[in-house]
Amino acid sequence: MKTGVTQARLLETGERIFLEKGYNHTGIQAVLKDAGVPKGSFYHYFKSKEDFGLKVVEASNNAYLVKLEQFFGDETRSPLARLRNYFESGIQAFAANDFRCGCLVGNLSQEMASQNDTFRTRLDEILLDWRERFAQCLAEAQVAGELCESWDVKMLANFCIDSWEGAILRGKVTQSTEPLENFVAVLFETVLAAKAPEAEC
Fold it and tell me: What is the pTM of this model?
């Protein structure tokens, strides 16, 4: 098995097990066994479990950014329609996974932020980057006349991401997509349809 292929397999396996069990409850030997990689090979590819975990986060985020670009770069839809399509597709994926797993960055943010500053810092950087991408889509909606020009798009982007992650958490508890559907309804029918506070659109 080639080095690049082996490392990619380990990262993919690590992401899946992190989503199921969390970082702290994932053992390296379990990852190696599941990936079909011989014992003792781990440290050929990674310096430590922390190094492995951070690389899993990077690989997962890179794949997510490709997906996000596909949604937000869809010029066949208006900016707000792109945003809605992204969330509605997320609801479908959540249901297809039996209301489990959710978002790796969200999961690890809950688990690791208070335990490991290296993880916390990188996860914060990733979330800030997501905010910029959501804000850009919302800014395009302003240009298209879909959204009040006085809204602070970074504030709205933070609201979108924070509320979505919270809805995923609640959806795991209720074993349903209702919290996510409620968020989408409130976002598009109330929040984004309103004028900015103390502003004329």
Answer: 0.92
